[in-house]
Amino acid sequence: MHEKPSGTEGGPDGEPEGPPALWRRLYAALGDSVAARLWRRSAELELMHRSMGFAALGFLTLVPLLIVISATAPANARGFAAWLGEGLGVSAAVQEQVEELFTQPRQVLETTTSFGLATLCVFGLTFGWSIQTGYEKVWELPTARWHTMWRHAVWAAVLIGYLFGSAQITQHRAPDGYGFPTSLWHVATTGTGTLLFFWWSQRMLLGGRVGWLALLPGAIVTLIGLTGLRIFSRYVFSPLIASNAVTYGPFGTVLVVQSWLVGVGVVVFGGALVGRLLHEEYPRVAHRLPNLRPRRHLRRRGRGRGRG
Question: Does a structural domain hold residue 24?
Fold first, then answer.
């Protein structure tokens, strides 16, 4: 009889046990983990590339749109500036640099032409199309047909209403200070509005091809990501605006806003991607939970028999 050399005993699958086999099992376990799948899908989605495209189109659409709306209604100029400053997490001293982008209504109205407004509308539709393409890549859906472009127009109109409502809430919160009731009302209304907007946006831009419940985790993750981005911006973008305003003037503020939009794009597409992974993981977790409940029930039942 031949003895097996040490370290080559057969495992449950007939493979030799040892460091190589353990490393293979560990690699397979890590490769099938949620984090590994998230990394692979984000690479397939080209998350950073799409976020930079989101920032470019958002800068060509959102910022001019906010400036034009604030120019047509000067009373709302401070509201939009306060909303943008809150998203950036800037301090009160740096807020003045952000408000300079919205404090020239006459000049904006004099230089705005019908061609400029038409171009802004085209960029707005393209902005909606880029977000729709990102959502389709997240859910691995085919590209929608051309006759569904009316969804982009409806989405852009709702986006304007969402931004206008957020600006109004921020503006009405400012005179009351930062008391607990006012802040709680502000957080509840803005949080609920943001959750509903991104939940509906996925459903609208995907053309109803994905169910509401499947899209809910993505909206929740997006809301959490935007909250984290605001906290991050307070410690990063606020000092950058202060330093760039001294060095480059208003152009420095624009650069920081562009960088912030890149972060928003990462949150929008990344939140939808994480939401899909959570939706896929839920059946696995739900399948394991019923297996635990009968055991507890049998234990209690066995204890009752023992007492009897």
Answer: no
